[in-house]
Each structure stands twice: as structure tokens, then as C-alpha cells.
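User: quick one - fold this with zinc ion bound?
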Amino acid sequence: MTKDRSEDVLGAMLRGLRGRCPHCGTGRLFYRYLKVSPACEACGLDLDRYPSDDGPAYFTILLVGHLIVAPILLFPIIWRAPVAIIVPAVVAPLIGLTLAILPRTKGAVIGLLYALRVHREDAGLHTADRAID
Ligand SMILES: [Zn+2]
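Assistant: Sure. C-alpha cells for the protein plus zinc ion:
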């Protein structure tokens, strides 16, 4: 029985989300906080080939903004409490959450690019790059 293509995409994204190689799920995807390993230490896949660019930052802002910031603004205490208390109480957890989510979204985006076979060499297909040529 062959695997469904959507299972491949979801599996690769989940492996990336866990910070693992989207191909084998064993090797580490990052060698530092957001630095992608040049190649998988387990299967040798060229991990640097998948350009996540601004995608992870966009999805992180989308998640934090819609799931955390917007609901927080609904609580009246946010508007009534002194700024000196509210800003550190809200901003510090937001920064922590953002820093926690960002590598996961980057891993998921790299997993998606791997599953869809989008490589750095495909950047020439981008319409903005064609305008320069
Ligand atoms: Zn691997």
C-alpha cells in the first residue's frame, strides 16, 4: 500500500516541527537556535537546500498575534493597570513564547519545502527575481 501524499507532507512537517530532519526524523535539523545544519547527521540529506526565508517569522507572528495578543486585549485589566506593570507582565511572556515557537515553525516550513520538493535553486522561478534579469 502506498502512502498518501498528504501523509508525506504532514509527516515531514511534524518531523521538522520536532527539530528533526524532515526525511528520516533522526538527525537534528538545527545546529544552533535557528541555524540549519548543512546536512543531516543520520541520512546525509542536504538540509541547507530548503530556503524557509520569512515564512517562519510570518507564521510565528500569525500564531502569537491571533492566539495570544488579540485575546489578551479583551481583558479590561490590560487597559486599566499601570503601564509599568502591564508591559513587563505581557511583553516578557510574549518574547518567551515567540522564541519558543520560532524554531518549530521554521522546522515545519522546512519540512513542508522538503515534502513539496522546493529547493533554493527554485528561487529563480520567483517573479520578483525575474524582474531583475
Ligand atoms: Zn535525515
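One thing worth noting: DSSP finds five helices and no strands in the chain.
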